[in-house]
Amino acid sequence: MAGIIGYGAYIPKYRVSAEEIAAVQEANANAIKRGLGLTEKSVPGKDEDTITIATHAARDALARAGINKKDIGAIYVGSESHPYAVKPSSAIVAEAIGIGNDYTAVDTEFACKAGSATIQINAGLVDSKMVKYGVSIGADTSQAEPGNALEYSAAAGGAAFIIGSNKESLAIIDKTVSFTSDTPDFWRRSMQAYPSHAGRFTGEPAYFKHVIGATKLLLEKTKTKIEDYTYVVFHMPNGKFPRAVAKIFKVTEEQLVPGLVVEKIGNTYSGSSLLGLAAVLDIAKPGDKILMTSYGSGSGSDSFALTVTEKITEAQGKARTTQDYIDRKEYLSYAKYLKHMETIH
Amino acid sequence: MFRDSSIIRWRAYKDRYMLEGYECSSCGKKYFESKGMCPCGSIEFNEIEFSGVGKIVSFTQIHSGPEAFSEQGKYCVAIIDLAEGARITAQIVDCKFEDLAIGTNVEAVFRKFYKSGEKGAIHYGTKFVPKF
Ligand SMILES: [Zn+2]
Fold first, then answer.
1. In a domain, A90, yes or no
2. Least CB-CB distance to B122: which of A46, A83, A345?
């Protein structure tokens, strides 16, 4: 199949700690941190949104790909926080990275898997030779209602991937499968500022069923075992769910932790599993195998088996790593956090 | 001058989004804005793309900017010498005024400029952040 020829991550500089939110919610911060498996989350700058995050990640992906930008024939931005209800984020990002006008673009939405689905779309376009290169981006500035449990995890960030031919790839997609059903675990109605969720229902019949379902399907279809993979990334709505899935598949700490970026940045929604993938590509070596399974409420999971090639080594140093962005931070008070989220003006 | 028109802004996308500029085809001097004639006498220019890396030449803090920028609170503005030689004025973000100095290395980022009210377009363009 096609593969990844360039990738880029982006996480805004600002953070709000679980302690800061817990103080306002009058909750026990230590219990929250233990329960959710995260200590802080990223917050966008006042002038950042899904489009600016997507652009930043795409520029880093281009720096790593080292291709003629005009050869890009498709660009897709997956998000549940597109700044416009009607007007494509993808065309603004395309203009900002300067790929000309000879390209197709569309914004996608499937909760947190809107970005990973576009990797499948671009791989199809590349393999059928409809385009030479396609850009796949997952980015979000996710919103949570003040006082809601989601407030501890709903974060901002994104990752971009340039998909191209197998022989140009730094990581070849060996196989990708999906597992999808109509499940009412989490949604946001049109014109509503904040999402709603079905509480505990978001676990067993939603996240776990689909992440486990897609991952099992991938292992079956590739005739591989979990121990064949150097790194394993599961979508990270919090730090607890991916660890629970890892336990079921007997994924080791060495396989899981390098991609478990949620603990210090929270759930970046469409960016979440993709940032985990970017983080493992930052340290991967030729020959390494990566398994990544996304999850989008509603519900579905896309699972990918990737093999890293010798092209990874040169690409890694050409842009900042995911860890560089995780380490760059400035903490905000709860009041300033609300201002950044435009909850108060 | 501050003009709130989606169309006027759209005409400037090329240099505001991408940091594109012009290079004198005779002496090689680079400009951010289009020039009629280069001091060397040439009127021929090639379009170029700047790397986005530069240094602060001078800077200030705006405490009370145009109404469209009010969401940002106070913000920093600087004159920047781009690595390739051209000079540009832009906002510096993700930093405190106290952290800036003449000579601070900065790099271009793509950010929101402002929104035209509740229903209007969102305007984007290039700002700078201290290099990290
Ligand atoms: Zn000249």
1. yes
2. A83
